Amino acid sequence: MAQRLALQRLLLLGPRASHSRAFGSSAGRRSTFNVQDGSDFQDRVVNSSKPVVVDFHAQWCGPCKILGPRLEKLVAKLEGKVLMAKVDIDDHTDLAIEYEVSAVPTVLAMKNGDVVDKFVGIKDEDQLEAFLKKLIGA
User: Fold this and answer.
1) CATH fold for the domain made of 32-136
2) 61 is known as an active-site residue
């Protein structure tokens, strides 16, 4: 029971919990951000000079709680070559509709304001690495 609670806490808090305790994780924090509103999305995602992975998720979505931290970890390893925007579909329904998100998790790969790739559902680390490498052209 204690292990299950610890795992739930980790999944709910995600990597943010480790950021507060670790000094070397500031690059990961800068690479990943929560979208605040449509204007913020326009500024930080659509107008970004770097490729951006957009994670459409929801608090109630179990697979999202697994995929999000996994994706954040891999984005942080790329040390600023790609950014990650997190969009809660319950808070930003307008963005979910605009980008035709019909299920969560949905992850978009964006370059120069255009969607260049996408997937729906959970992926393992190898699949996520391949997705990110394709996005950055590595």
Assistant:
1) Glutaredoxin (3.40.30)
2) yes
